[in-house]
Design the sequence.
């Protein structure tokens, strides 16, 4: 698989997008690059969380890697949801329950 510089699919895959969803395990090179992008994103998030712990913005008892993975999963999910048609019955339902 050739990945062109600036290709939307590659840019999006770095943040957990179409490449992972559409190609899955069918293209080993694409999935390798996607997983590498996932890892880099989660490492960067974990570093930010650690910095926040040092500055007192985040509780010291948190596990930065676990929080980073959860946050990354949420961000990827939001990107997928943003590309799907809205469901009127579910809009805001989760917020109302809180």
Sequence:
């Amino acid at each position: 698989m050739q990945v062109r510089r600036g290709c939307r699919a590659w840019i999006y895959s770095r943040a957990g997008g179409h490449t992972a969803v559409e190609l899955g395990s069918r293209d080993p090179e694409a999935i390798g690059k996607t997983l590498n992008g996932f890892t880099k994103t989660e490492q960067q998030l974990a570093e930010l969380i650690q910095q926040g712990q040092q500055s007192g913005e985040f509780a010291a008892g948190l596990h930065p890697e676990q929080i980073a993975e959860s946050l990354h999963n949420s961000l990827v999910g939001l990107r997928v949801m943003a590309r799907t048609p809205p469901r009127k019955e579910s809009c805001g339902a989760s917020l109302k329950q809180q």
Summary: The mean pLDDT is 75. The radius of gyration is 16 Å. The first helix runs from residue 8 to 14. Residues 92 and 98 are 10 Å apart (CA to CA).
